[in-house]
Specification:
- The protein has 2 domains: 2-138, 3-Layer(aba) Sandwich (Rossmann fold); 150-297, Reverse transcriptase/Diguanylate cyclase domain (Alpha-Beta Plaits, 2-Layer Sandwich).
- 48% of the residues lie in helices and 20% in strands.
- The chain has helices spanning 10-22, 33-40, 60-70, 87-95, 108-140, 150-167, 181-188, 190-207, 233-244, 273-289, and strands at 2-6, 26-30, 48-52, 77-82, 100-103, 171-178, 213-218, 221-227, 249-251, 254-256, 260-266, 295-297.
- It has a 5-stranded parallel beta sheet, sandwiched between helices. Strands 7-8-6-11-12 form a 5-stranded mixed beta sheet, sandwiched between helices.
- The radius of gyration is 29 Å and the shape is elongated.
- The relative contact order is 0.09.
Length: 306
């Protein structure tokens, strides 16, 4: 773990840096408070910091205050080194945002133990962040394919419709359904069906642009939200269709042919999400009716796309 050692005394800084290196830390050093703040404000800042109280530029407590005001998910544990022993001084340092303090001259083992405690706190916080992110992803993503789930892709569509409405910018949606998917499950089993869903999901994502979003809408059906692609929505849908059927999907030693039917619709001002999705869905089923493995346009009555 990286640790910042900030002290304006060259002798003290070098001694302290050598000491914490022996304890297994990767040291970043600063010779004054301003340098310390520049290090700690970076995205990849050390998660532990040992700051001398009195430094040129910014004092240790001032650096603490600036770090806490900056905020961010990655918590930085700060330990102040000080020759001050009055209760008021301790309160000042802790109020500024320091997590702990050690009075100089300090005992090496005491400092080592306090840093070890700080490291545990940082590691526990990282575990909590990882757990929070896992829960967030579980709530917004499909567990099998890793794509956004139905609720999340609907939220994205609603947000993009607001943008398209306000700025009269283009927006398109594509509904996609894998052809004869039930037959795959019935003949080859659900493991094969899962392989097909995962393979199709990967191929869809490979075709889309960065601003596009795709979600598993339900079963073997997918919804693509494509901002700024309305003028070329048919071509995008065709690229997706071609990518899905380009080659068989492997499930163990079995190669499964996969095709998809797609319907698309272009957003118009004052059109509700359900109307837009219905137009794309009707086009999808028209593609199914007309032989599958094809793309059909959706129609919104009396609508001139933005």
């Amino acid at each position: 773990m990286k640790i910042l050692v900030a002290d304006d005394s060259n002798v003290s800084r070098h001694l302290l840096s050598s000491m914490v290196k022996k304890w297994g830390y990767e040291v970043v050093s600063a010779s004054d408070g301003t340098q310390a703040w520049e290090v700690l404000r970076q995205p990849d800042a050390p998660r532990l910091a040992v700051l001398d109280w009195m430094m040129p530029g910014l004092t240790g407590p001032q650096v603490c205050e600036m770090v806490r005001q900056k905020g961010g998910d990655a918590y930085i544990y700060i330990l102040l080194l000080t020759g001050r022993t009055q209760k008021e001084d301790v309160i000042e340092g802790m109020t500024a945002g320091a997590d702990d303090y050690v009075v100089k001259p300090f005992d090496q083992q005491e400092l080592r133990v306090r840093l070890r405690a700080g490291r545990r706190i940082v590691e526990l916080q990282d575990e909590l962040l990882s757990a929070r992110e896992a829960l967030r992803k579980q709530a917004t993503h499909d567990t099998l394919t890793g794509l956004k789930n139905r609720a999340r892709i609907r939220e994205i569509l609603a947000d993009q419709m607001k943008i398209a409405e306000e700025f009269r910018s283009p927006l398109g949606v594509i509904m996609l359904d894998l052809d004869k998917f039930k037959l795959v499950n019935d003949v080859y089993g659900h493991a094969a069906g899962d392989a097909v869903l995962i393979g199709a999901s990967e191929r869809i994502q490979n075709v889309l642009d960065e601003e596009d979003a795709v979600g598993r809408y339900g079963g073997e059906e997918f919804l693509i939200v494509a901002p700024r692609a309305a003028a070329d929505l048919a071509a995008l849908a065709e690229r997706v269709r071609s990518a899905i059927g380009a080659e068989p999907v492997a499930s163990g030693t079995t190669l499964l042919t996969v095709t998809a039917s797609l319907g698309y619709a272009t957003f118009c001002p004052n059109v509700e999400a359900e109307t837009l999705l219905r137009a794309a869905d009707e086009a999808l089923y028209r593609a199914k009716h007309n032989g599958r493995n094809r793309v059909e346009p959706g129609v919104l009555d009396g609508c001139t796309p933005a």
